[in-house]
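Input/output pair, single chain:
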Amino acid sequence: MGKTKHSQTTDQHPADTDLSFKFLHVSRWTLYFVAIGIIAGCGSIVFHYLCQVGSHFFLDFVAGYRPPAPAGEHHLLALTDRPFNRWILLFLPAFGGILSGWLVYTFAPEAEGHGTDAAIDAYHHAGGFIRGRVPIIKTIASALTLTTGGSGGREGPIAQIGAGFGSFMATKLNLSDRERRIMMAAGVGAGIGSIFRAPLAGALFAAEVLYKDPEFEPEVIIPAGISSVVAYCLFCLVFGWGSLFDSPDFIFNNPLELGPYMILALILVATGVFYVKSFYGMVDLFHRLKIPNHIKPAIGGLCTGIVGFFLPQTLAFGYGFAQQALNNQLTIPFLLSLAVGKVLTTSFSIGSGGSGGVFGPSVVIGGAMGGAVGNFFHQIIPGIVTNPGAFVVVGMAGFFTAVSNTPISTIIFVSEMTNSYHLLLPSLLVCSVAFMAGQRWTIYDKQVRRRVDSPAHAGEFFVDILQTIKVKDLMEHVRKVTLIPQDMTFSDFKKYFSESDQHYFPVMDQNKKLSSLFSINDIRGVLFSPEIESLVVMKDIGTSDIIVTTPSEDLNTVLQKFTTKNIDSLPVVSEDDPGALIGMLNRREVIAFYNDQIAHMKSGGQMSENRVPST
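Output:
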């Protein structure tokens, strides 16, 4: 009885065991993503404190410059009464450039520039690996760059903090490159979602920003969502809940307003091209300068200070001016100078090797251009464009879409940042037009076109594509060959062999059906034994254990047959009659055909019927 009872309590149904395993697997990975969210959230908190303290000391206490803050943020330290000094502001960004340049190029040169691009590059080309010191150096260097007046955003450094910890955790746990990439991307989503108080957009952005085409990395969305929610909650527990910007309750209810929005989209694309060209023009210029890398951010900082001397609103973050634009408190000349000046200061600050993000400036530039266009149309057609501030919201979304190729996540980003969800329809229109018109240009130079182009997915599409191609698609490459009679003597075959360039020879029986096959390797023993040439017939040389293929077979199966016996050519036989030879198919022709199809896909072409569909 005791044994029976013991057996009953220990035996488990296979389905229960499988369910328990899945539960443990999901629980383990959920804990990983929660941990990434906690670290990213803490990193956002620390970085925000550093920026607040640095801005208070350098901009406020030293230069007397106190730019406005967005409604969702407040100064952690009391403002001083020091008078504004343009001359100090002229040289302050250069000072920050010296410090950040020395720090970055001494300890982690890969931390230069905007960190999101570095994370994209690590995802595609480095198996998601990021050196552990990079997030730390990036955090300090970015804080120095941005709080001394350099123009940039917070998403770059915070993205590398989250990505760096995800990569570190995966490495310590001895996880695969694929798992490390997912955890790294989850860290990117968590960092950006928390610092901008947009958790849903952060998760979508991490999955969308990797590619130029409107394509998501599906494995990233759920992990990044978990990490982003955790990081966002931690950040808001410390700094308060709510959105970054306080937007009036804009309503879209006039279809005629779509006309001005279309014009806005085109203006945003033109501004975006100017932004990308200016930014990478500075990157190329500073790369060509024959001076130590440590000095280059200081020169960029000095150029930034010169612009800031005349247009101080273009320095540092500039989110407060975007808030004022939402409230319709700025004039058209001020908005245009803010947009153009912000392009220049960001190009100088980050393009020279300084450390910071490019999303934050894009929000300000897009909002300023949207505000200028909105105010212009409000003055000439006030009955149609009633709220210029609505164009600020849509301008933010449209501009960043034009320079980043991320239309979906950007729409959600701006909606969450401004707490304005009634402008989804014009935002969708403007972002769609901006994406299509500006797809050639991107501020994220490390983006690849599609998943099939990413080294991270090398080989994943190989089998899928091969299975869609049939032997009948290569019939023009199937070589017609002569069947060798099975009773032909070897001495007679030598005459035929001397005039042929074949490597494989099919043998036919008395009914002219394929009966065996031999290769040039099989005849070497007889070739050097002339005394038996007249005695040996081809039936004795060929093997009857033939591996064949048919027109309906896919190339994945064909390649498996090639590799099973390490052969270079297969007989193609009729579907209805295995003895009816159609011709010989070479392995080289199969691989060349596959490469042609991949090249055609990468060029954006569509496959013909029965061939590879566009992936």
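The chain has three domains: 30-66+85-239, 258-293+319-456, 460-602. The domain at 460-602 is CATH 3.10.580.10 (CBS-domain).
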